[in-house]
Write a structure and sequence with these properties.
The chain is mostly beta strands and 378 residues long. It is 10% helix and 42% strand. It is elongated and about 140 Å long.
């Protein structure tokens, strides 16, 4: 009868009448297997993203060790498959690979993770589930030095730094945890209030005077008491604006307002606009077809130009103002500043003094007409 092997550790069981004279070798191998299973420790250097830990039949193998020290330098999660799939195993695992190591068996219905720098007790059920018992364990009660620990997991999480806050009305009977000269105690809010009040030498605080200063902007004062009603605190807004009043007249208006960092007015700038009415400072006349040459049109000046004579036939009237810059003969390559059929108004808003041509035409056949232009400005 041939040998058989145990399911979980691969220990050889010779059949009746088998291995005559050679049982010593089989027994020694089985003892080595038992030694690994009971107290054996193996260091495994992992590479890549997967590997298999095998329990061999009738021979020593890494899968028979009880303690697995996992090393290597991994860059991603590594999966260890427990083989064979029907062997029940318990491994004590220390993970020092730099990544999470996942244990799986069979179909991998349930897997067990051991985080980097963590410990785990991994149980493979001989089917398709692996469980990290350190993640699944539950302690119903704990006694330290004869004293039962009655705290809940949620309460421990709050002490550990839980950031979830609960809206609570604080009363004198409520308490908070204090370190009383090295001994942790719960102290009532009433005791804390008593201590705060005892640190005040009299019923009023700081001689009952508050002075509020903020440079030259705010001044103030007032009084209050710790347990009494406040009297009054007055804040005064100082006049820190250095700008006097500005009254525009005629064509003068406020153009620029300067504020400091507090929003106070520190400067007012004025400008004078050309009225565009009243007496012009110059009048120009010319004939069509042709151009009027007008120089020294200041920023803010206004030109009003029109055709004094209109054609009665073949009408193709126009009146135009061109920038003299770029003008070459009667083939302008400069910028047209304004255009109309018979009358136009153009204000120089370019920010600089301009020299312009005023051109007009009254007929597609070259009829002669008059161009009039009024120049307004300061």
């Amino acid at each position: 009868m041939p040998s058989t092997f145990t399911t979980n550790t691969g220990i050889e069981k010779p059949g009746n009448g088998e291995q005559s004279g050679s049982w010593g070798t089989t027994v020694n191998t089985n003892m080595d297997i038992l030694d690994r299973t009971v107290n054996g420790v193996v260091s495994l250097t992992l590479t890549g993203t997967s590997s298999t830990i095998t329990t061999a039949n009738g021979a020593t193998s890494d899968g028979q060790y009880r303690v697995l020290l996992l090393g290597g330098v991994l860059s991603a999660t590594h999966t260890i498959t427990v083989d064979p799939a029907d062997a029940q195993k318990i491994y004590y695992v220390k993970n020092s690979t730099g990544q999470t190591v996942t244990f799986t068996q069979g179909s991998g219905a349930v897997t067990a993770d051991v985080p980097n720098d963590g410990f785990g007790v991994v149980f493979a059920d001989g089917s398709d589930e692996c469980v990290n018992l350190t993640d699944s364990s539950s302690i119903s009660s704990l006694v330290l030095g004869g004293t039962a620990v009655t705290t809940t997991g949620a309460e421990l999480n709050v002490i550990d730094g839980n950031t979830s806050a609960t809206s609570t009305t604080v009363t004198a009977s409520d308490s908070i945890v204090f370190n009383d000269n090295g001994v942790m105690k719960q102290v009532s809010m009433a005791d804390i209030n008593t201590y705060i009040q005892s640190q005040v030498s009299s019923p009023t605080v700081n001689n009952s005077t508050i002075t509020i200063t903020a440079g030259d902007v705010l001044t103030g004062g007032g009084t209050f008491t710790t347990n009494g009603g406040a009297t009054s605190i007055t804040l005064n807004h100082q006049d820190v604006s250095s700008q006097g009043s500005v009254n525009g007249s005629g064509n003068t208006f406020i153009q620029d307002v300067t504020l400091d960092s507090y929003g106070h007015v520190t400067g007012l700038g004025t400008a004078t606009a050309a009225s565009g009415g009243g007496a012009p400072k110059a009048v120009y006349g010319g004939r069509t077809p042709g151009s009027l040459n007008i120089t020294n049109v200041l920023n803010g000046d206004i030109l009003v130009a029109w055709l004094a004579d209109l054609a009665t036939t073949n009408a193709s009237e126009f009146i135009q103002i061109w920038d003299q810059s770029g003008w070459v003969g009667f083939n302008p390559s400069s910028t047209m500043l304004a255009s109309a059929t018979t009358v136009l108004r153009w204000e120089n808003t370019t920010g600089s003094t301009k020299a312009v041509f005023v051109r007009g035409n009254i007929s597609s056949t070259g009829g002669v007409g008059r161009i009039l232009t009024f120049h307004y400005g300061s």
